[in-house]
Amino acid sequence: MSIIGEAILTASVELLVNKLASEGIRLFARQGRIKDDLVKWKKKLVTIKAVLDDAEEKKTTDDSVKLWLGELQNLAYDVEDLLDEFQTEAFRRKLLLGNGEPAAAHDQPSSSRTSTKSKFRKLIPTCCPTFTLQSIQFDYSMMSKIKKINDRFRDIEEEIGSLKLIKSSAGGSKKARQRRDTTSLVEEAKVYGRETEKKEIVELLLKDDSRNDGGFSVIPIIGMGGLGKTTLAQLVYNDKQVEDHFDLKAWTCVSDDFDVIRLTKSILLSIASDQNVDNHDLNKLQEELKKQLFGKKFLLVLDDVWNENYTDWVHLSLPFQAGAQGSKIIVTTRNQD
């Protein structure tokens, strides 16, 4: 599935959740006795939406997840088409009701036949104003379509567990996002279609930065959740040319818990596994990190950065100034700033 396709899928699910909550759909659902079905659809879509980020991240290395996303996309289109049919039919019935006979026979003179019609109409509940052959045929057709969609929803929801998809979207809990840690390891044989992007980033990493006064430069990989930012960073991190170019490499997953002490410890352990990082003194930790980086060309990956606080970034980056010219930091993030 392309990047555009992934964005469309996320937007489609969001659109369906909103459409199912709309007044027109809810009114028609009550009239057509399908309220329970639509309520279930909305709940299922919310559940599915919560795992979309994880699914779209994993689909680059798991064909089963890629197939699941394709089935979900098709289902989203079919549900949207069906809801459009509901809205069209609701509008037709509203027009039919508006063009009907007067509700009360004594409002105006009429023939006995018209009077009988008016009396008959008063016996039909207002919630079911269009008891016509066309309406009956529509309802019968919809019941069949609803049943098929219920079955497809059930299958897709059941696969969430078997595919081990995690609630990792912005709509998920903070605790769920923190549990989703990442590492630098990647199974390259199962990654397809990222050669061009990988080559571009590798070229940036190997590029001479003699005009950069900061000692290091930052390369951001930006995009919405599920676009494979982590996978791309992993591919670059493990590239042979990159391995040979840098003296030190470190990988740390940031997530939404931008704790400077935790991150400093993680970076230290990544470049010097024998270091004792039991203390919580930020000054001592950063002095040690500065010593480890001094005069060395390093590559650091900060994966899944959510924090936009500039002060936190300044505190974390102080030891990085000790690195040699040409050091690089890759940041994967959803934020443009």
TrEMBL record:
Residues 195-337 form the NB-ARC domain. One of its GO terms (molecular function) is ATP binding. Residues 13-113 form the Disease resistance N-terminal domain. GO terms for biological process: defense response. Pfam families: NB-ARC, Rx_N. Keywords: ATP-binding, Nucleotide-binding, Plant defense, Repeat. PANTHER family: DISEASE RESISTANCE PROTEIN RGA3, PLANT BROAD-SPECTRUM MILDEW RESISTANCE PROTEIN RPW8. This is Disease resistance RPP13-like protein 1. It comes from Citrus sinensis.
